[in-house]
Amino acid sequence: MHNLNQLHDLLILIDRLELQIYNSAVGTALGRLPQAPRASIVFFRTNRKVCDDWFFRIRSSIVKGSKIIGHDAMAIRHGLLVNSLMNFKLFSLDIPNCMFKFNIGLL
């Protein structure tokens, strides 16, 4: 049980970290967060590709961890991001095929 709580806390931390990085790189996410300091804005705008690549590499692990702790909304959000980023160039409107790929990505 203790390990599940730690996993939950880690996943929430990573999710909030991504939101804060987005806030610094692009601007206020959803208008709810205060503006980041100028030094952070410059740093994350300069290194946005590195951050995006890092989140892309760990996103499938986030999906797996979210399924373990039962955080379905986080699993779906990150699963859709994994699927959309992997199939961005191969996007099709074949809904059953997309859902099958999404289901495979969650396993």
Can you put this structure into words, describing what you see?
The chain is mainly α. The protein has one domain. It is built from five helices and no strands. It has helices at 2-25, 38-46, 48-69, 72-86, 95-106. α3 (48-69) crosses α4. The mean pLDDT is 81.
* Count of domains: 1
Number of strands: 0
The profile of the biggest β sheet is: none
The gross shape turns out to be globular
Gyration radius, to the nearest Å?
16 Å
Nearest-integer average pLDDT? 81
Stretches where pLDDT is under 50 for at least 5 consecutive residues are none
Q: β content, as a range?
A: under 5%
| Share of residues in helices | over 70%
Number of helices: 5
Order of helices and strands: HHHHH
Give a quick precis of the structure.
The protein is mostly helical. It has 5 helices and no strands.
Strands, helices and their partners?
Layout: H1 2-25, H2 38-46, H3 48-69, H4 72-86, H5 95-106
Helix pairs in contact: 1-2, 1-3, 3-4, 4-5
Keywords for this entry:
107 residues; mainly alpha; 5 helices; globular
